[in-house]
Design a protein that fits this description.
Blueprint (H helix, E strand, L loop, with lengths): L10 H14 L6 H9 L20 E4 L2 E3 L2 H10 L7 E5 L5 H9 L2 E6 L2 H13 L5 E5 L12 E6 L8 H5 L1 E12 L4 E9 L2 E10 L13
Parallel strand pairs: 3-4, 3-6, 4-5, 6-7
Antiparallel strand pairs: 1-2, 7-8, 8-9
Helix pairs in contact: 2-4
The structure holds S-adenosylmethionine.
The site of S-adenosylmethionine has 26 residues, from strand 2, helix 4 and strand 4.
Length: 221
């Protein structure tokens, strides 16, 4: 994290450098994806005292013991959903609302669920300020999914689960893609699950570090 050098920051320039150096240079070149990251003001999703670091190549604390993920990881997870623009997607773990804002630029409708109502209401306010009317924020246990809005062509889970929550598999549309961090004994693996009728394929993408998923299909205390 850089030290704040001056009071004013050129956030548009910092954002552009983030897209070039952290996302495109690491191999993600989809123009729609890059445009979404260029247009979402990440600094509005982090606490005011950390805005100077909003475009750093790292996760940041957002309060209440939670974090906003590293930009590249958000980009990687989003790219794996292969969104075309007309999908309904589900996000579990709204946190700051940043990932939801990115999804809002790439899909038709975004349903995002946050366990902590303080984070949910703050995220909802930022998303409303940005005029992202296709995002619906709910407070609750996202490990149960959101059955009334299912099926989803894409599901992204931003907290690490002990195993893939069964309700999320059930709520995935045929051909739909589910991306989530899963705990192993020693570390977490980012996994991509794709539904083919009643069958699912699983692909391990990379190792990651996320906060634990809570709720019924989350970590048991
Ligand atoms: N995607 C977020 C963003 O863009 O800021 C980052 C999410 S943060 C890494 C993980 C979030 O998942 C936390 O805000 C946490 O409260 C939330 N969470 C954990 N378990 C959950 C559950 N069962 N349902 C909904 N949210 C959950």
């Amino acid at each position: 994290m850089k030290e704040p050098a001056a009071k004013s920051f050129d956030f548009a320039l910092e954002r552009h450098l983030m897209v070039e150096e952290q996302i495109a240079r690491r191999g993600l070149h989809n123009p729609r994806l890059l445009a979404a990251f260029e247009s979402v003001p990440r600094h509005l999703f982090v606490p005011e005292e950390l805005r100077y670091a909003a475009y750093d190549d790292s996760a940041l604390p957002i309060g209440f013991g939670q974090t906003i993920s590293q930009p590249y990881i958000v980009a990687l997870m989003t790219s794996l959903l292969e969104l075309q623009g007309d999908e309904r997607v589900l996000e579990v773990g709204t946190g700051s609302g940043y990932q939801a804002a990115i999804l809002a630029h790439l899909a038709r409708e975004v349903f995002t669920i946050e366990f902590d109502n303080r984070l949910a209401s703050r995220a909802e306010e930022v998303l409303r300020t940005l005029g992202l009317a296709n995002v619906h924020v709910f407070t609750g246990d996202g490990s149960l999914g959101w059955p009334v809005a299912a099926p989803f062509m894409g599901i992204v889970v931003s907290a690490a689960a002990p195993q893939v929550p069964k309700p999320l598999m059930e709520q995935l549309a045929d051909g739909g893609r589910l991306i989530l961090p899963v705990n192993t004994l020693r570390h977490q693996l980012l996994e991509l699950w794709i539904r083919h009728g009643e069958h699912f394929s699983r692909q391990v993408i990379t190792s990651v570090k996320f906060v634990p998923l809570r709720g019924e299909y989350g970590r048991k205390k």
